[in-house]
Amino acid sequence: MATLMNPPKERYWLHLLLFVATLLSTAYTGASAFISRDIAWMEGPIVLGFVSMPLVRDAFVFAFGLVGFLTVHEFGHYLAARVHKLNVSLPYYIPTPLIGVGTLGALIRIRQPLQDRTKLFDIGASGPLAGFLAALAMLLVAMATLPPPEYMMGISGHEPLHRYIAEHGTFPVDPIPSPGGVQLMVGMTPLYWALSQVFSNVPPMSELYHYPLLFAAWLGLFFTALNLLPVGQLDGGHILYALIGSKWHARLARGFMLLMAGSTAIGIADGGPEFLAVLLPVLSRNPLIAALLLWFLLGGLMALVLRRIYPGSLVKILAGTAALVILGALAREIGPPITQFGYEGWLIWCFLLAYLIKVDHPPVTGNEPLSRSRVTLGIVSIVIFVLCFSITPLYFA
Prior knowledge:
60% of the residues lie in helices and 5% in strands. The chain is mostly helical. It has a two-stranded antiparallel ribbon with strand order 1-2. Strands 3-4 form a two-stranded antiparallel ribbon. A two-stranded antiparallel sheet has the order 5-6. Strand 3 and strand 4 (103-107) form a beta hairpin. The longest helix is centred in the middle third of the chain and has 45 residues, at 235-279. The model has no long low-confidence stretch (mean pLDDT 91).
């Protein structure tokens, strides 16, 4: 077993290279795919002979905000591991140019097994707690320094919104449909909603991602919630296992996986026929075949997820699949408000959790109870999860 007396030699150059690559990747992806203040960028001074200063500023405000959050989160884990004298690596950053937001996050490697619930809790909780404080501070700064609504005049393709702002000087209460007919929507969270009631000039959720620091802060809250999902070896899974043990962790993790699968089923059933008609135009002329294909695909996908939630239990797999398909059919028939809880994007997370991260937590031999202060921090972590979670985080409307 590796110990701190003889740890592997750190490749500092690799960590630094991945950090810089992730910074550049998020800057480029954020500016090109989300912020997109093309009018304002063209009006700014040119630097380096080909790029405008406002573009560089917006890109790196977003990048430093998001990568800074990731750094605080991972160093929360790292410092907790070092306090417990564990053999741990520095963070490895994961750049993904033009995929998602330009990064898949960061991770550390703990090179020793955790045989102690206290250590498991400290390391699992320290990352999201530190990251949440960083994201909250960033969100407060972003909201306290929001520009007036005229900021949106620097973005093309929003002419109806431009006219409304020019006439009223404020944002509309309801989003104005874009000329293209499709808008990227950012999901509301309880914490974001509460702060939006305090500060002025808060943009509608359909325009939030055009604000670099505000969007980076929202992503920090969203990534905190994802890490706190109470499943497997996610941070939330570590915290839950340390708090209540393996038996109740297994029950609650499966319950939460079923909630995600239910949201997925509702989302697929709600938008599936239209999506299939676009994907295969011939189905628009055969609604019965389209419906049968939709329910067949939905049942197959749900069965694959349930196969990992209930391994070896054919009865639970079949019953769960039937229940999820019926839930999707009922939601499509009833419509709102049930369909507002549907989000097909959770399908990816269902498969990631079921097949890569796994539902159950590996056993930890130490069974000593946590201290009262740690139990309190565990409850705080659950509250943070609720405050930062959105059932529909990013979607098109």
